[in-house]
Amino acid sequence: MTLRNLFVTAMVLGTGLSTNGVHQAKADDMMVYELRTYTAAPGKMPELQKRFRDHTMQLFEKHGMKNIGYWVPTDKPETLIYIVAHKSREAADKSWAAFQADPEWKAVYKESQKNGSLLKKLPERVYMNPTDFSPLK
Q1: I want to staple 86 with a disulfide (CB 3.0 to 4.6 A). Which of 16, 36, 43, 92 is the partner?
Q2: Is residue 68 part of a domain?
Q3: Is the pLDDT of residue 56 over 50?
Q4: Does 137 reside within a domain?
């Protein structure tokens, strides 16, 4: 399965679908999806994945973010790509602020940085809305 197919599948899982597999987009119920790309520092991918697996995903949910999926591209093993869903863009901003202020996250982050940064560069993000023709397949 290609990264594009995984991405489309993840998008579909997080959207409300009609019986014909097409999202019936309404402004008041439009989920906002956030695609984030992390580039791990050399040798730090196992630690980065451990932080997500053991802490970050649960903290995202605690602060209103829905975990959709996580991937490592086959040709870029130092890259972690994931998608989270938010009820709206405003909800995304509130969730991120609450997440970053969370004392548990601050402790986890500090502990994960004790042997150097896990990231080679700052994460990239893209906010997305599903189209009215998002396919099931």
Answers
A1: 92
A2: yes
A3: yes
A4: no
